[in-house]
Amino acid sequence: MKRILIVGTHDATRSQMMHGYLRAYAPNLAEVATAGLDVRRINPRALAAMQVDGVNISEQSTTPLSAYQGQKFDYLITVSQEAFDRLPQSSAKTEFIHCPLPDPSDHEGAEVDEATLEREYEALRNEIKAFVIEFVDMYLRQSVNQAM
């Protein structure tokens, strides 16, 4: 089983959504964890967007990156530019993948109407889902097939 760590800025939206889809599409292929540089609670809009697609992320929790210090992962996926810029990418055994995703929570509190925010979260969810499907096919299922 492959170990995956998804790192975002706050571990509240993008990383949590990706975690939910990896659990849904690769339940027996990967052990998935998430972490944030500056942890916040899971974004309720992310919860709602995933629920629309039948993926429940309400039981997931946010974790500071320091909690994984010294642990080994097969894949480290960064979902924000800040996480990509701040993480050292020097492990010979870890494959680093940068998946820069927009953060709709940047618009919360601004003069953006509810319908626009909902569309942004829906678009983010769909982008993450497409990435996860491709990731599972390219990296996880391929490694299972090679082991057989």
Automatic annotation (TrEMBL):
Which parts of the sequence belong to the Phosphotyrosine protein phosphatase I domain? 2-138
Record has Hydrolase as a keyword? no
Pfam families per UniProt: LMWPc
Keyword entries, A-Z: Arsenical resistance, Coiled coil
Q: InterPro entries of this UniProt entry? A: Ptyr_pPase (IPR023485), Ptyr_pPase_sf (IPR036196)
A GO BP term here is: response to arsenic-containing substance
| Sections of the chain in a coiled coil | 107-134
Q: What PANTHER family does the record tag this protein with?
A: ARSENATE REDUCTASE
Can you say what this protein is called?
Answer: Arsenate reductase
Q: Which organism is it from?
A: Catalinimonas alkaloidigena
